[in-house]
């Protein structure tokens, strides 16, 4: 019987081995391949068990984009506690997560939200709360996506970091205690923003440069479809969702871009098929941040300043009375997704699809990847 030799790294240059390990450890988020949220990091975890060297090569790749939801938040908190304990018992095994996390997704419906209650440990000299462990990781990422219903977790992390910061931040001698520049909020609603009542929350929003609403609420998507199919708005017009009137836009002092998602509507539109939870291609609109500041929210984005066929004369009258001006589509970048995504259904059915949209890279070389 011919024996097939086992694969081995023997004889390969170290640089080639490192590339192989990093490629194998990278989670798959692309739309063209299978996606199982619970198995995203399975290969990287196995590589971490091979050796300490493999672990230090695989962990940065695994941590680059972290997706935390009701299924794996508990495991992630346990891993953070373990690193904290390693610092006291086995320093060689400790790995600092925070510097390697670039993108992090939080939600939905977390079974175990991080608490500020101290967690007892027989290894650490002082008990540390889960909130103290997760806050540096969450705020260290440059891109943060979080369900709007979980915004209280973000507020708690911001307040914790703010209160521990030296007071001379006011004179500019210290950087802000977070790196977040892109804030993605999922399943927006018309609730008030409690974080704006805190100095820490206001400072956080002031540092955001890109705001993304992803995905839209099911009702918002349906309203947009109805407005188009009933020809209340033109085929190139977009009525802004109601929640935009509740966003404290003036708090986003450094805001450069705002991105919104709409279902693609091409007439004739099959409403029956859509109501069966059929998927639709998405249209992503990105407009300058200056266009949403100083107003409660634009009433509509128009293809041609209200002269487009199908526009509502009633909306023109309302605009004249209120003094609101419409945003021209010429000032908005529109991209269409390569793949259809769901716009209707329960959160549990939708969140993994939109996790993949977000994690696969919302924007690459100026082109949206969905």
Set down the secondary structure blueprint:
Elements: H1 14-25, H2 42-48, H3 52-63, E1 65-68, H4 73-89, E2 103-106, E3 118-119, E4 128-129, H5 130-140, E5 143-147, H6 151-163, E6 182-186, H7 199-206, E7 210-213, H8 218-229, E8 238-239, E9 257-263, H9 271-275, E10 282-288, E11 300-302, H10 313-322, E12 327-328, E13 333-336, H11 347-359, E14 363-364, E15 367-368
Parallel strand pairs: 1-2, 2-5, 5-6, 6-7, 7-9, 11-12
Antiparallel strand pairs: 3-4, 8-11, 9-10, 10-13, 14-15
Helix pairs in contact: 1-3, 2-3, 5-6, 6-7
Question: Terminal Cα separation, in Å?
Answer: 50 Å
Percentage of residues in helical conformation: 25-40%
Give the H and E element order. Answer: HHHEHEEEHEHEHEHEEHEEHEEHEE
Q: How would a crystallographer describe the biggest sheet?
A: 8 strands, mixed
Strand order of the largest sheet: 1-2-5-6-7-9-10-13
Count of beta strands: 15
Shape: globular
